[in-house]
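Hi Q.,

Before the meeting this afternoon, I wanted you to have the magnesium ion prediction in hand. No need to reply - just skim if you have a minute. The sequence and ligand are here:
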Amino acid sequence: MTTNGNGKQDIILRVKNLKMYFPITKGIIFQHHMGDIKAVDDISFDIKRGETLGLVGESGCGKSTTGRAILQLYRPTAGSVKFEDRELTTIKGEDLRRMRRHLQMIFQDPYASLNPRMTVGNIISEPLEVHRILNGRARRERVKELLDIVGLNPYFINRYPHEFSGGQRQRIGVARALAVQPDFIVCDEPISALDVSIQAQVINLLKRLQDEFNLTYLFIAHDLSVVRHISDRVAVMYLGKIVELTDRVTLYQNPLHPYTQALLSAVPIPDPIAEAEREKKRVILQGDVPSPANPPKGCNFCTRCPAVSRVMQTHGIDCKIVEPKFSEVASDHWVACHLHEACRP
Ligand SMILES: Nc1ncnc2c1ncn2[C@@H]1O[C@H](COP(=O)(O)OP(=O)(O)O)[C@@H](O)[C@H]1O
Ligand SMILES: [Mg+2]
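Predicted structure with the ligand bound:
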């Protein structure tokens, strides 16, 4: 990680009160607005240059939408996204196109995200074409260099995606993202669709590239065991909101939100003594995630939270009515839970 002159880490991306709602409409000719799917509902966080922020939560909680709203692949409903102090939510046209060069994405499914009718060379050179970087022979040499950087044989440049394994296809996706020399990459579950045996190779590749090119990552995953190996800090998301955000060590040693605790109790620990100790207080979540079209009132985790009656007894707060604030309960440790809000310093 890099620091600026003051010894303070330099912030590359600031997300403030970001909301991404998808309208629900009814009717064929006259579209009546029936409500909204609140995929991302008022989230705020910063990412420092050169760091990896992990974003974790169950399927459907709004992780991919967050990544897309940051990159302006969706235009946010509300809130601000600042990249190097430039507001992205209002820029358009040529300015947006130019800005996109700095912000890239690696997709979850290396099978679906590569055009089967294009050669690997064309897939990787497409972003160079869009951003008018290099020409003819020089561009082809750059593609070969990119193949080499991600650990693929440059000789494969004329082959098609189906000729590669899953792990190799994800390397092609990484090469395509790197082509324009971005600063920030959203890695959207880049290893979820891969065999366990090759997941570590792709993680190691991403780490090596981060060091080599001083990249900043938002690394999305649906479980905490994956982000543990790559993240500096981790944000835990539930039903469109961030419920906890802190550094990786604190999150794993001292998780404060009941949802984080539940997610962690599903992650295996190699140490049998620690495992036995934890077995005693294992938290198993009941029920399913509610619909983001109709989230619960109060704290949106209240329908599944094991601490609701404890909050009522100890703090006299009804989680089903009062929404907890996302607040900094210790230095750089943010939580949205009444259990912790009340004991703020
Ligand atoms: N383009 C869209 N239109 C309508 N609803 C969407 C769209 N994209 C995502 N959603 C909904 O938003 C919620 C969050 O989705 P997503 O961000 O894909 O979650 P995750 O990546 O955490 O699995 C889901 O309920 C999903 O159905
Ligand atoms: Mg997703």
